[in-house]
Amino acid sequence: MAGKFNPRASKVFQAMCSEALRQLVTETPGVEDACLVTGDGFEIASALNKSASASRLAAMTSSMHALGSAITGELKLKECKSVIVDGEIGTIVVVRVPSRHAEMMLAVTCGKRGTIGGVLFAARQHARWIDERVTATA
Amino acid sequence: MDREHVILFAGPMGAGKTTAIASLSDIPMVTTEAINNDTDAHRKATTTVAMDYGQITMSDCEVVRLYGVPGQDRFDFMWRIFEARAVGLILLLDANTTDIAADLDHFLDKFRELVARGAVVIGITQTDAAGISGIELCHARLRERHQFMPVFEVDARSRDQMIVMLSSLVVMVQMRDPQLGAA
Question: How far is B32 from chain A (nearest CA, A)?
Fold first, then answer.
């Protein structure tokens, strides 16, 4: 389990992440929403076009990743890197931020215009960027 | 004929739901713990963010599946998922809380559908530190609500105490099952 940096305690970190998520949403084809959350289900930063509640999305994202971790652990597949939920008119991708300092997940939604591969690649890129910012801040 | 019952553990954060299932389960538990960032709400280091799962065999033909849900309201979508599957509810309350009657009200209201159709027992934990009778407070509140359900003082770490409470619930479930009828 990751260590002692509290991402919600740093306004500077939250502001950096908000800007990064805004770029993710505006610059990645098909991406509609993005939300960075803590492992225990609190919003750190978000860029939401939908009318979804950021706080509920944050809680659901953490639960989904936790269930993914439970099943990968059960099947001895090591860490859960991502969870993909395939809806009829869109997809939600949840990726773990690979940080030693804090438990965080990034949820990204895309509509039919996006490809799962493209969105997953962009989400992982941003997750790594977030990890680098945490390491610099922690 | 083998019988399986689904029992839900609910209650406020820190009441001992995960500990209780760990005490009871015959199999390695499934847990979904994350670091607790909300230390204002509770000082515990970790918190359940999706579900706990365990299982106990009560007799040769009776298996109980134990599901624990997070205590915080922001995870209420998990409550709805597991409430629909359960036939009984173990509501754990922390004797150290500032208002145990308010917690009782909150969770009986939030799980009103299961309370109406299923069996319910209440377990009051951490009574060793509290020095007050949570049982009396809960009974008083239940009288005001015109509801009757058994209330136990339990140590969630004690398998024996948890089995007594769970066995009571299972008997209540059996009595409500038209196929099984009264024992």
Answer: 5
Which class for A6: exposed (0-12), middle (13-18), buried (19 or more C-beta within 10 A)?
middle
And the tokens for B56? 């106990």
Q: How confident is the model at residue A2 (pLDDT cuts 50, 70, 90)?
A: low
* Residues of A with Cβ-Cβ distance to B70 under 8 angstroms: 63
Say which of B33, B50, B74 has its CB closest to residue A67.
Answer: B50
B48-77 pLDDT, tens per residue?
999 999 999 998 788 999 999 999 999 999
Task: Specify the pLDDT at position B1.
Answer: 58
Residue bearing tokens 């990751």: A2
Tell me the whole-structure pTM to 2 decimals. 0.90
Interacting residues of A85 by C-beta distance below 8 A, sequence separation 6+: A64, A91, A92, A93, A94
Query: What chain B residue is nearest to A74 in terms of C-alpha separation?
Result: B30
